[in-house]
Amino acid sequence: MIRLSRIAIYPIKSLDGHALNEAHILPTGALANDRRYALRDTQGAWVNAKATPHIHLLRAKFSTDLNNVTLSSPNDGVQKVFHLPREVPRLESYLTEFFGKRIMLVENQLAGFPDDTDSPGPTIVSRQTVGELGRWFAGIAEDEVRARFRANIEIDGDAPFCEDRLVADDRHVVRFEIGDIVFDGVTPCQRCVVPTRHPETGEIYPQFARHFADRRRETLPSWAAPERFDHFYRLSVNTRLSPISTGGTIRVGDEVRILGVVAA
Fold first, then answer.
1. Residue 9 CB-density burial (10 A; 0-12 exposed, 13-18 middle, 19+ buried)
2. pLDDT tens digit string along 204-257?
3. Nearest CA to 12 among 85, 86, 99?
4. Which residues contact 127 (CB under 8 A, 6 or more apart)?
5. Phi, psi (rounded to 5 degrees) for 13
């Protein structure tokens, strides 16, 4: 029996995650409060970890109700608490000083700011995969693997990369259930430069993407759909809320059940 073992959201895009015991699924399929806020500059460009490695130095800790975020950085070593959304101007001033340019905090409470707007549901990886990746890269512990790849949902499965069972060919999706919420598994997630960097220092791990892709190719499981791997720097599964589901709540401990394969 496969069960949901971990839930993580990232309330401010590109900053530290926040673990939950349960999460509400929005009508868009996204987890409530995941990537609810994002950073932009005055030119309208996103300020995120893809383009701004300096952001890795910024630590964030969220209160249980997510109404407060505590930030700290090597710039001053002082923890500062900000209420969301009441103290957004004060938070923007702090971020402006940290980045050395004017920063604005933008909010989308209804959908968040997902990387994949076609598949905005939670990204899924297995606990076994996280453990396997820790063995691929010397000196990278499992929690660092999680911080590098930033998946929303971790399942306790039966083998490394068992989450690949949630992806079919490009004409079909795998319909599966977490608790009583139905999702469609769409595609293996294409990774960017972010996992190659240490999540707290921004330091590049030499040849990370190349080594990852080589090992992924060598160990691609028999149940994976090879045609979905135009390259092998892919990990975790992008999902959508199934059209037969309207949302609800998922919880750590929920059973994960594959229902079948349907036309995309």
1. buried
2. 999 999 999 999 999 999 999 999 999 999 999 999 999 999 889 999 999 999
3. 85
4. 5, 6, 154, 155, 156, 157
5. -55, 130
